[in-house]
Amino acid sequence: MIGKIHLKGAMQGFDYWEVLPGQGKYWHPEFVTTNGKTTYKDEHSTDVITKRAKNWLQNDRDQEKPFMLMVHYKAPHRAWQPTTRWKEKFKAMTFPEPDTLFDDYQGRGTAANKQDMSIDVTMRMSRDVKSKLPERTEELSKIDPYDKKALIRLKYQWYMRDYLACIAGVDENIGFLLDYLKETGLDKNTIVMYSADQGFYLGEHGWFDKRFMYEESYRTPFLAHWPGVTAPGSHNSDLVQNIDFAETFLAMAGIKAPEDMQGESLVPLLKGETPADWRSHLYYHYYEYPAVHSVRRHEGVSGKRFKLIRFYGIDVPNGEEWEFFDLKNDPKEMTSQYGNPEYAAEIAKLKIELANLREKYQVVEIPQKVRKK
Questions:
Q1: DSSP 3-state of 160
Q2: What pLDDT was estimated at residue 367?
Q3: In the CATH scheme, what is the code of domain 282-360?
Q4: Of 205, 197, 196, 127, nearest in space to 159 by CA
């Protein structure tokens, strides 16, 4: 295990690990290892993680045995500090704005209207978008300081330059790892899987960060390369989720998953074979409120077209609010159709599905405390 894990204490179950403590730092990163702590002065975490992963592949693994290597990058976590080379390449770029950048949230309820994750209010000028950089100070001086939309647009561009420069650094370093596999011949019998822990708002709805069950943060990238098994260039639209990864790794290793695990092996899908009883809906639950970004607690269920979300708890009128979206007719989820009688039958079906999945996953209600001011 090399990179970010964001768990306290010593790693469990790994033969070898070098991990960032907590969120870790982009520059001069410290790594906690099986042998203590090491700081890489004047280096960037993305580059160091790749370097240490290659070192393990070259020098520390048993060359005669199968291996599993997990490489977890800190980037592109807030506050988006790219390597110098990519920062320079992106510093003058201009990116198209999402057409929901100035969303007024009229079609949704309390949660969307009262969150604290907007580019406008939440995104910090100095820490997040580095407004004190000379080139950015100059750009800032050219807009009307009383023009709110102009400032949001400028902050969005700064955000995109830093975020996508971080992404470019990760992309480049994954390329270095893939090159190493090819140079050593390991590419012929090594499965490579790439994913993330969630999607992220890149200005959609005027937001950054994640947390909501809306599509931009709910959908997650997932790519897989399995030589001789997964057809190159193929695409699968079945519903999968992060709880499926452990079962998938076990199945690939020929190990039966424990009965109490809740996910499903993705091996059949990677072989191009969708089981007849594959899931038709996904369950989601967000508990962390009151907390950073003030996203209200919510749970929900979604299929490929329809999505039902229940916001609940303190600071939600009457204790709960519902939203329902038809992703075919409203893919950007601008207007909830929960009160629309034309969708009453679909909403009823999803409420039953929600109840069934809550039972299946043994969902626990966690008491909600009022944060003291």
A1: helix
A2: 87
A3: 3.30.1120.10
A4: 127
- The C-alpha R_g of the chain, in whole angstroms, comes to 23
User: Please, where are the H alpha helices in 185-220?
Assistant: 215-218
Mean pLDDT of the chain: 96
pTM of the complete model? 0.96
Helix (H/G/I), strand (E/B), else coil: 114: helix
Could you give the strand order of the β-sheet that contains 18-20, starting from the edge strand earlier in sequence? 36-39, 30-33, 18-20, 2-4, 71-72
Model confidence pLDDT, tens digit, residues 299-354: 999 999 999 999 999 899 999 999 999 999 999 999 999 999 999 999 999 999 99
pLDDT, tens only, 74-109: 999 999 999 999 999 999 999 999 999 999 999 999
The tally of CA atoms less than 13 A away on the side-chain side of residue 184 is 13
For the segment 170-191, what is each residue's pLDDT rounded down to a tens digit? 999 999 999 999 999 999 999 9
- 323 near 109, Cβ under 8 Å? yes
Residue 212, by phi and psi: left (phi above 0), alpha (psi -120 to 50) or beta? beta
CA distance 301 to 283: 5
Phi-psi region of 45 (alpha: psi -120 to 50; beta: other; left: phi over 0): alpha
Of 16, 17, 20, 18, nearest in space to 7 by CA: 20
Q: How many CB atoms lie within 10 A of CB 57?
A: 20
- The answer, yes or no, to whether residue 373 has pLDDT greater than 60, is no
Secondary structure letter of residue 188 according to DSSP: G
* Nearest of 17, 25, 3 to residue 71 by alpha carbon: 3
The Cα–Cα gap between 131 and 134 comes to 8
Enumerate helices (H) and strands (E) in the chain, giving the number of each.
9, 11
Q: How confident is the model at residue 8 (pLDDT cuts 50, 70, 90)?
A: confident
Q: What is the mean pLDDT of residues 13-28?
A: 95
β partners of residue 283? 301
Query: What is the spatial distance between Cα 5 and Cα 210, in angstroms, rounded to a whole number?
Result: 18
DSSP state of 8: -
So where are the chain's domains?
A: 1-74, 78-230, 240-278, 282-360
User: What single DSSP character describes residue 198?
Assistant: S
Beta-carbon count within 10 A of 311 CB: 27
